[in-house]
Amino acid sequence: MATQQRPFHLVVFGASGFTGQFVTEEVAREQMSPERSSRLPWAVAGRSREKLQRVLERAAMKLGRPTLSSEVGIIICDITNPASLDEMAKQATVVLNCVGPYRFYGEPVVKACVENGTSCIDICGEPQFLELMYWKYHEKAAEKGAYIIGSSGFDSIPADLGVIYTRNKMNGTLTAVESFLTIHSGPEGLCTHDGTWKSAVYGFGDQSNLKKLRNESNLKPVPIVGPKLKRRWPISYCRELNSYSIPFLGADVSVVKRTQRYLHENLQQSPVQYAAYVTVGGVTSVIKLMFAGLFFLFFVKFGIGRQLLIKFPWLFSFGYFSKQGPTQKQIDASSFTLTFFGQGYSQGFGPDKNKPNIRICTQVKGPEAGYVATPIAMVQAAITLLTDTSDLPKAAGRIGSQLCINLWDLRRGFIISKIRKMDKSKRSHD
């Protein structure tokens, strides 16, 4: 990546949005790290100069860095103006795209970045967008030398690297993993901005097109090693965690499966089956969830129903999603634990007529998922692209999920830095 010819190494597009302001703050914090010998030139981008300036002023005040606004460039561009997106892409080595829902606003950014040889990272949790972008732009991205990396936030770096970490810790062959996400909250409870809610509403309303896209891809099935991993019921009980659980409906399964395909087809590694769940607590929570789920599944089928779901997120989600998003107190008191239960074969044993004879449990823990862990993950993925260029793939596989980066180097670039930063800022429980 030709950083010398471009004025900005990083550009945060959508910096004035709800998540974008946290990503902007994280880039600024990264620049202040004592481990960084020199600062990277960077900019924020969006439609309104005034809003972008206010975001920088808030970040400067929060970080105690009054000169921040004068150190960061501002680029004015609009998702509806392709020429302005081209101008943004030409000025950047890596674009951090925070404008969603990506099914509506993501492709123009991908197109502009690919055509101008600019790498792009997003925090998309929408499988249809991720997979469609792969099929439409993979060859062009490889030709231009651009890395288009999707799902580089809480969706789905902890899950993807967690499976690889589990495999590396197992003294044998890992064949299947189930993950269970547990969200911890403080006395003021949980809340998520309705941008995530909108993505879920539109995603469920368009599931048929995702199935059609996958059928048209005609991908050769990845071989199953050992017994086939059975799906749990829509509501099941996890004895190990003493909690009921439901399937996790984000991008984790899609991303992990694509990573396992990449590792099998390109590095001849044994593929790992994967399923993802989220814990919901006890019986009372299950009953509450059932009612919310029934309302959601009914309304999402119809256009007017989707409009109601989007207009009143707080009502239909029982307060878990709102147009205002979480308060700072809610963010500070929240954290996550992602527990992985794996099974496989010890050294010397194989799947031929043998049942798995070894089990393993690992955990990934971190701060609040959406607005602390996600910005950290996104920014560290960008830093990896900028600093570990010699370790990145040189041929195909330059667009898609973070599977397209050399995963071991991403783990080094992201997790080690993440752990150090969390220890210093005390933003993690473990």
From TrEMBL:
Keywords: Membrane, Transmembrane, Transmembrane helix. The chain crosses the membrane at residues 274-300. The keyword Ion transport does not apply. Residues 11-149 form the Saccharopine dehydrogenase NADP binding domain. Coiled coil: none annotated. It holds the Pfam family Sacchrp_dh_NADP. Signal peptide: none annotated. One of its GO terms (biological process) is glycolipid biosynthetic process. GO terms for cellular component: lipid droplet; mitochondrion; plasma membrane. Belongs to the saccharopine dehydrogenase family. This is Saccharopine dehydrogenase-like oxidoreductase. It comes from Tursiops truncatus (Atlantic bottle-nosed dolphin). The gene is SCCPDH.
